[in-house]
Design brief:
Length: 345
C-alpha cells in the first residue's frame, strides 16, 4: 500500500537521522524489555495455539488459548480483550472460569498481541466477529457465552448481533461504544494522526493513562507486567507495523458505533460496570466542554441496561475501567453468580 510504504519509509528515515538521540532518550525514559511484533518473547499463562486462515487475500494467524476444565459444566466462554489488553490479561478470569467448569477460549484478535499485524486490512467489528466465529468453529465450539471487555465489549455486542442463535449469554465488562463520541463532539483523528501518536507510545504514557482512567488514580505492582507487554512491542523491531495496525484499529473503534443497535440484542446480558471509569476514545483531543460530557459511566450503565433487553446490571461504585483486574475477588464472585443464572441450553 503506497501510503503505508511512505509512512514506514518516513519513519525509518527519521529514526536513522536521529538514531543516537532516540536511543539515548529511549534508554533514559523507556527502559524495559523489547518484544517482537507478534509479542515474541512474552510468555502467556496457558499454552498458545494458532488458527491459520485467509482473510481479505492475506494469510493470517490468530493466536488463542483454549483452556479445558477438569470438571466440565457443559458450557464454553470466549473472552474478548480490549484495545490496550491481550488474551494474557484474562489470566485470573481464565483461572476462575475454568475452575468453575467452563471451557475458556481467549483469542488475540488480528492486529493485536500474538496475532498477525497485516500491512493492510479493512478492520471492522464485523470482520473481527467473523474471524472469531471461524476460530470457534475450527475447534468445534458452537454456542458460547461471549464475554467482552472495553473494545472487546463492542466486538461482543457485534458478535451477538451477527450470531444470535450461537450466543448463549452476553457479558459486557466496561464496554466502550456505549455512546457515539463523534455525535457528542469528539473530533475525528485521521489514521495518519493515530499512527503518529502510536509511534510515541512509551511505558510511562501507558502507565499514566491507565492509572488515571482504568484504576482511579491508584497503581499496583501487578499492573506493571501488562504495561511492559504493550510497551515492549513498541520498543521492538516491529514498532512501525504495530503502530500502524493500532492506528487502523483506533479508526475502527471511533467510526463504527454499536450503540444504535443495542435494542436488537437477543441474548440475556450481564452488564458489569466500574462506575469510576472515564474512558472515551480521542477524548483528549476534544474541547473541555465535550470532555465533560463523554465517558460518564454511571449514566451510560443505566442507559445501556435499559437499551439492551433482558439485561442484569452489576455496578462497582469504586472501581474503574478494568474491575476484573482492580478487584478480582469481588468481580469474579459477581461474574460467576451472573453466569450461573443462565441455564445450559
Amino acid at each position: 500500500m503506497p501510503m503505508l510504504r511512505q509512512l514506514l519509509l518516513a519513519a525509518t528515515a527519521f529514526a536513522v537521522l536521529s538514531a543516537p538521540l532516540a536511543v539515548n532518550a529511549a534508554t533514559a525514559a523507556d527502559d524495559g524489555p523489547a518484544y517482537g511484533p507478534e509479542l515474541e518473547g512474552f510468555d502467556y499463562p496457558y499454552p498458545v495455539q494458532h488458527y491459520k486462515f485467509s482473510s481479505q487475500g492475506q494469510p493470517l494467524d490468530m493466536a488463542f488459548m483454549d483452556v479445558k476444565p477438569e470438571k466440565p459444566n457443559g458450557r464454553a466462554v470466549v473472552l474478548l480483550h480490549g484495545k490496550n489488553f491481550c488474551g494474557a490479561t484474562w489470566q485470573e478470569s481464565i483461572r476462575q472460569l475454568s475452575g468453575a467448569g467452563y471451557r475458556v477460549i481467549a483469542p488475540d484478535q488480528i492486529g493485536f498481541c500474538k496475532s498477525t499485524k497485516p500491512p493492510h486490512y479493512q478492520y471492522t467489528f464485523q470482520q473481527l466477529a467473523r474471524n472469531t466465529h471461524a476460530l470457534l468453529a475450527s475447534i468445534g465450539v458452537g454456542k458460547v457465552t461471549v464475554l467482552g471487555h472495553s473494545t472487546g465489549g463492542m466486538l461482543a455486542m457485534r458478535y451477538a448481533l451477527m450470531y444470535p442463535q450461537e450466543t448463549r449469554q452476553l457479558v459486557l465488562v466496561n464496554p466502550i461504544g456505549l455512546e457515539d463520541w463523534k455525535a457528542k463532539g469528539v473530533p475525528s483523528l485521521s489514521v495518519d494522526q493515530w499512527y503518529a501518536r502510536e509511534l510515541n507510545t512509551t511505558a510511562d504514557r501507558i502507565r499514566n493513562y491507565e492509572k488515571s482512567t482504568y484504576y482511579v488514580g491508584q497503581w499496583k505492582p501487578e499492573y506493571e507486567p501488562w504495561v511492559q507487554m504493550l510497551a515492549g512491542m513498541n520498543r521492538g523491531t516491529g514498532k512501525q507495523i504495530v503502530a500502524w495496525n493500532s492506528a487502523l484499529l483506533y479508526d475502527m473503534i471511533y467510526t463504527q458505533p454499536v450503540v444504535y443497535e443495542m435494542g436488537a440484542i437477543q441474548a440475556p446480558t450481564l452488564l458489569m460496570i466500574g462506575d469510576k471509569d472515564t474512558t472515551a476514545i480521542a477524548k483528549d483531543a476534544a474541547p473541555p466542554e465535550v470532555q465533560a460530557r463523554v465517558g460518564r459511566y454511571p449514566e451510560l450503565a443505566q442507559a445501556t441496561a435499559k437499551a439492551i433487553p433482558n439485561t442484569t446490571l452489576v455496578e462497582f461504585p469504586e472501581l474503574g475501567h478494568a474491575p476484573q483486574m482492580q478487584d478480582p475477588q469481588a468481580f469474579h464472585k459477581a461474574l460467576l453468580e451472573g453466569m450461573a443464572r443462565v441455564s445450559v441450553r
